[in-house]
Amino acid sequence: MKNIIKKLFKSNTIPPSPIGLPENTRIYCVGDIHGRYDLLQELHKLIQEDALDYKGEKCIIYLGDFIDRGSESKQVIDCLLSPFPEFKCVHLLGNHEQVLLQFLHTADPNLANDWFKFGGLATLISYGVEIRGIPTLKDIARIRAELSDKMPFAHLEFYQKLNLFYEAGNYFFVHAGIKPKLKLEQQKPEDMLWIREEFLNSKYHHSKIIVHGHTVTPNPEHLSNRIGIDTGAYSSGKLTCAVFENLDCKFIQTGTK
């Protein structure tokens, strides 16, 4: 009986996936930027230096949360909209971009207050929106209208076209993570943008290695089933990039020279 139970348990467990990318492909994956345009510039230089002699296909993936908290969210988006020579660029949706879009769609005071508390005020100021002390209920409609007026159309279009995930080789790139034991094609947007403990504490081996940001750790986390690269750039000064090629993964960080 014990052997039967053991066999059934094994049959329901997905074995660890081999890590790898197709030949002649290198991916640079950037963690949460959060308005730190200075660090993004520094990291871009490090990426260009690292890729200088590479002749294969080069892709750079940004895991979302480009805005809020840091003081230069608008400048970050301007930078991401600029061409990055010789690289395919992929931009993913983060929960902070999701909330910004929701705020532009509705002046819900609860949503607005939550966004203001976790970094939205810095984004508003970067777009030139006037903030007079702590916004009150009567200020929300004005702030929303002013943001709509001052945000370049190219920025709005950028936010609206962000992808939820990206797949390459045996990697699945997503902002926050996924719900364990649920197939990748069945994942819900809210989990991919917001999930934490249920995903982070799971030792389940998914069909692909999950590469994510969203949850801050002092250093990158390279585990058997996931790789986390949000190192709290807005406060730590460490913006992290994971570099994938063949079976290898290494990390590039700002502030390490």
Would you count the extended β strands for me? Answer: 10
Termini separation (Å)? 59 Å
Query: What are the segments in which pLDDT stays under 50 over at least 5 consecutive residues?
Result: 1-17
Our Rg estimate from Cα atoms comes to 20 Å
- The total of helices stands at 10
User: What letter string, H or E per element, gives the SSE order?
Assistant: HEHEHEHHHHEEHHEEEHEE
Assign the CATH architecture.
Answer: 4-Layer Sandwich
Strand order of the largest sheet: 3-2-1-9-10
Q: Average pLDDT value?
A: 91
CATH class: Alpha Beta
Strand content: 15-25%
- Report helical residue fraction: 25-40%
Sketch the major β-sheet.
5 strands, mixed
CATH topology descriptor: Purple Acid Phosphatase, chain A, domain 2
| Relevant CATH superfamily | Metallo-dependent phosphatases
What is the 3D shape? globular
Describe this structure in words.
- The protein is α/β, with parallel strands linked by helices and 257 residues long.
- The chain has a single domain (18-253), classed as 4-Layer Sandwich (Purple Acid Phosphatase, chain A, domain 2), CATH 3.60.21.10.
- Helix content is 37%, strand content 18%.
- The chain has ten helices and ten strands.
- The protein has helices spanning 2-11, 37-51, 73-81, 95-105, 109-126, 140-150, 153-160, 189-194, 197-200, 233-236; strands at 25-30, 57-62, 88-91, 165-168, 171-174, 209-212, 221-222, 226-228, 240-245, 248-253.
- The strands form two sheets. A five-stranded mixed sheet has the order 3-2-1-9-10, with helices on one face.
- The protein is globular and about 55 Å long.
